[in-house]
Structures are given as structure tokens and as C-alpha cells.
Amino acid sequence: MAESPTPAEPLVRPRRVALWLAGVCGLLGALVANEVVLVLTKPLAPNLFSLTAGPVAFWTTVGAVGASLVYALVRRLSRRPERSFLIVAIIVLVVSFIPDLLLFLLPPSPIEQVTVGGVATLMGMHIVAAVIITAALLRLARPAPVRA
Prior knowledge:
Blueprint: E1 12-13, H1 16-41, H2 53-77, H3 81-105, H4 116-140, E2 144-145
Antiparallel strand pairs: 1-2
Helix pairs in contact: 1-2, 1-4, 2-3, 2-4, 3-4
């Protein structure tokens, strides 16, 4: 009969290659999806610099890399890494709306021509990227249980 792990033993064995691959899959999926959203919604804010390919690709990449690093950390520290990561991802998504809302609420910028549609598009892109990246990490990089 196999013994259950003691509290000092790790509950999961990290699979770094799988995590890395899941992060790349999430990034590629989010990049494609956000570029599609960008093309479809560009008329809502034609002069909003944040809604151009460069910034969208850059910030989507930052989000995917950050999510992958956080998931790697959560997998090492949590007894229920999938649930813990999902909670963290939701909190980070909500916090990510703050800069978008500030774009709209602060005095007009001479550089950015902000519209309600532009801000809604940015927030929608955050949701699209978060769903795709989180799903890729949780489905493709699921930690394997430690066997005795």
C-alpha cells in the first residue's frame, strides 16, 4: 500500500517543459485572438495608439509571460494550484482594467484620442487574453501527481 505524502514532501512534480509549452500556446492563441479583436474594433477608436498592433502584441506577451511565471510559482507553493491560480488570474484581470478606465476618466491626452468604444475594446482584449492564457496553462500544464 502506498503511503500518502507527508507535509514536507511536494504534492506535485513540476514539468517545466510542459509549462513552458503551455505558456507559448497561450501566448500565440492570445496574440491571434487579440489581433482579430483589434481589426474588428478599430473603427471604435481609430486614433487610439494603445489599439495598434505593436502595443497589443507587447502587452499580450507581458501578460502571458507573467501568467506563466505566476503559475509556476503557484504550482510549487499551493496544495490546490489550479484553483489558486484561477483566483489570482481573476484578481489580476480585474486590476488590469484600472489603467483602461483611467485613460477614459483622466483629462484628455493630446496624444491619445480616447473613446468609450476604445476603452471597452481594451478591456475586452484583456478578457480575451486572460481566458486563453489561463485556459492554456491550466489545461496543458496540469501538474502530474507524485507517485510513491
